[in-house]
Amino acid sequence: MGHAEHGYNYYIKIWAILMVLLVISILGPTLEIFIVTMITAFGVALVKALMVAAYFMHLNIEKRYIWLLLIGALLFLGGFFIGVAPDVMNMEGTNWVHCNGYNDANRARIAQEAQMAEELHPGQGFGELTIPAERDCVPQRF
Q1: Looking at the structure, do residues 39 and 81 belong to the same domain, yes or no?
Q2: Average pLDDT, the chain
Q3: How much helix, strand and coil, in percent to the nearest 5, is found in the chain?
């Protein structure tokens, strides 16, 4: 079924539902309740993604094996992430290096920006900005 069979009102209705879900996902975190934030961030995003796939990509009128291919690909992606996450997200180990990002060039740039900000807005405390004088990368041994 193309747009000719069910008209543009069909797409406007789906769009309106997606806009309501967008507002919910924006307002949810303002309550500052962790579970509400998670539900509105990930739950609503999942519902919106399924609606877009079903109605705008017309998967709702495709053969069932198209959905199975999509779900299979997502499961494969999730399995791949679960398989590599322990190594990629590891924050410790004998060869792990923690880079703090404050090399000499960054320290000089930030100091110059602080000086310019202090000149533009005197008395605001920009000139008191201090940057750690550590090495750029510090090996971490745990």
Answers
A1: yes
A2: 80
A3: 70, 5, 25
